[in-house]
Design goal:
CATH architecture of one domain in chain A: 3-Layer(aba) Sandwich
Oligomer: homodimer
Strand content of chain A: 15-25%
Number of helices of chain A: 17
CATH superfamily of one domain in chain A: NAD(P)-binding Rossmann-like Domain
Radius of gyration of chain A: 20 Å
Structural class of chain A: alpha/beta
Helix content of chain A: 40-55%
Strand order of the largest sheet of chain A: 4-3-2-1-5-6-7
Chain lengths: 386, 386
């Protein structure tokens, strides 16, 4: 059976890799919808190659331009949130690849869940901000949320067929980013270029900065808590600079099962798309004898307070994880715009969290209110510092 | 439901560990039969503690002595092969733990299979010598052979619920033994004490010498070929001196799944006994941050020719793996008796294999004939060298 796929964020790193996997298996997958922010050239190429029936761009102006370029193709072009929701709820779509960067992915992903779509999730912000209501909604409708992050995919692959009641803990690995061994003095002076120099993975800028602060791992901890319905006390982070072991599960008998591979996102992406099968991917294989050595160490929460903030946020719960995420988005953007220093990122997140009055989340609107508040508050802190 | 268990070789390393696991879960397991070679003191203790209904010792003299000591207990005492077969075919036994060292385990294990028992297999010689007919018999009766070796248990745990047709290869790890880094000159002069100094595992003498020659890994390669019904070309060996990763499976999508743990045989033993569940074992947990580093390298087949002989034997097939195993047993015993040097072990195996006329195996008797021939031939080579 051919699976019909919509990709939210098709011109980004994950979206492009997903299309690469799809292109290798034309008998298995058919692209029905695509969305992009504003990279018209790239999405036009994707449209001509994969022939979706509907696409959406961030704004009306870009949409109009794309429509003119694709006038000869039988395709509908939309824009904005309305367009995103159209693509994520497309009746003919079986799977929605949620690969928009940041909190902008929340509403379209939630719409996909409500429309009963299988979600292949790369947008961790959806789970960080609204994990409880997303998973409730998914469970109610009996739909699957399949992880595309390498770490969550690792846990998901290891648990395939296993019993969650036998799990003692899950261990998310983290490369430690480019600043694992640098002093706080050096990190204070770190430039945008320094922070973007990730040792193993080639990713978007936002997630690369999050890897340098370990906030990315913090967000993944929160995502894991909801995705796998485990207690936060069962989730550990382990620094593993080689990024070969993508994550592990420790069972109650002391056995630890780990998923490994070369650091290539096509493996977890393909696993989510083809689940419950594994595709025959022709790509470089892991050669542990060549790798030679895998190392592991405990994360230093003092050196990387963002990880600690994430644990605090999910322990407190309610709107606090959304505030953590939104204030971090503001701070990272300010850093990329060179308005603040690298160490200011965690300070902005911390200050915004401290000022937040935590509320319980009943609806997606509660999340949006907290998100708005956190952005304004974080901007205020950025201005104060900058 | 309480599982009724017979243990062949209860006073050995694996047998004792199995009883330790059983003693922790009296609601799950009941010991019904035990066998030992000649350690009367130890088996008497085990009898008083676990109250089996039948036991067997290697010879009549020991059996008589034991009977006198246990006169007040309601227990039947047998001896020799007849006794072993009685214990392995005991009507009330659900699981037979096959933990006799060496080729002596073949006939009682085969008898257990024919009697329709689930086999918890630690005796790899059964599979090395007669893998094809053992697995045929097991398949015919629909019975399971559950591995207790840490490497095979690792593969078995990883594959739980997975699809064998998606497996690209299996990778058995090997510590490399005490001579991984020694020169051939040093290995030539190696004493029994040197060879018994295994870096990670505390095991019986025969298997410890086999670890030093890598013959143990060779036997495990052959065992894996039958246990998992994979082609010999799909089985690789990787040196991993820390013995933390117990083995791995590489899937066709490039994903590698590994089972890890502290080097403690109680984990794989418990997994086999409690399969399909995992027991809540209270024991030291793997702490990868403390371990710090895992290393991997390709095995050196020139330095450790026994591994190469094992691949040759299974590629050729028929009676040759049995000859490999039996000649190795003779050579290791001669080494332990200080009649030959360490490097003579591989030479004796090689020479015996070269002199063997390979036959097809149709019955267990064909195996026994080859085994006999190999022992006599290997003894002749030992005498020539010694």
């Amino acid at each position: 059976m051919v699976k019909h796929i919509s990709i939210l964020g098709s011109t980004g790193s994950i979206g492009s890799s997903a299309l690469e996997v799809i292109s290798l298996f034309p008998d298995r997958f058919k692209v029905v919808g695509l969305t992009a922010c504003e990279n018209i050239d790239k999405i036009e190429m994707q449209i001509r190659r994969f022939k979706p029936s509907i696409v959406s761009l961030a704004n009306e102006k870009s949409a109009k331009k794309l429509k003119e370029r694709c006038g000869n193709l039988n395709i509908e072009v939309f824009s904005g949130m309305e367009g995103l929701i159209r693509v994520s709820t497309l009746p003919e779509a079986d799977i929605i690849v949620s690969a928009i960067a940041g909190s902008a992915g929340l509403i379209p992903t939630f719409s996909g869940v409500k429309a009963g779509k299988t979600i292949a999730l790369a947008n961790k912000e959806t789970m960080v901000m609204a994990g409880e209501i997303i998973t409730q909604e998914a469970n109610k409708r009996g739909i699957r949320i399949l992880p595309m992050d390498s770490e969550h995919s690792a846990i998901f692959q290891v648990m395939n067929g296993g019993r969650w009641e036998e799990v003692h803990k899950i261990i998310l690995t983290a490369s430690g980013g480019p600043f694992l061994k640098t002093s706080s003095e050096e990190r204070k002076r770190a430039t945008v270029e320094d922070a973007l120099r990730h040792p193993n993975w080639n990713m978007g800028t936002k997630i690369t900065i999050d890897s340098a602060t370990l906030m990315n791992k913090g967000l993944e901890v929160i995502e894991a808590r909801w995705l796998f319905d485990v207690s936060i006390n069962q989730i550990e982070v382990l620094i593993h600079p080689q990024s070969i072991v993508h994550s592990m599960v420790e069972f109650r008998d002391g056995s630890v099962i780990a998923q490994m591979g070369v650091p290539d996102m096509r493996i977890p992406i393909a696993y989510a798309l083809s689940y419950t099968e594994r595709l025959d991917l022709i790509m470089p294989r892991l050669d542990l004898a060549s790798v030679g050595m895998l190392t592991f160490e405990k994360p230093d929460m003092k050196k990387f307070p963002c990880l600690s903030h994430a644990y605090d946020a999910i322990r407190e719960g309610g709107t606090l994880p959304a505030v953590l995420n939104s204030s971090n988005e503001v701070a990272v953007r300010a850093f990329l715009q060179r308005r603040i220093g690298f160490l200011d990122i965690e300070a902005i997140v911390r200050e915004t969290m401290e000022r937040h009055k935590v509320r319980h989340i009943d609806t997606i609107e509660d999340v949006l209110v907290a998100d708005n508040w956190a952005r304004e508050e974080a901007e205020r802190v950025v201005s104060k510092i900058g």
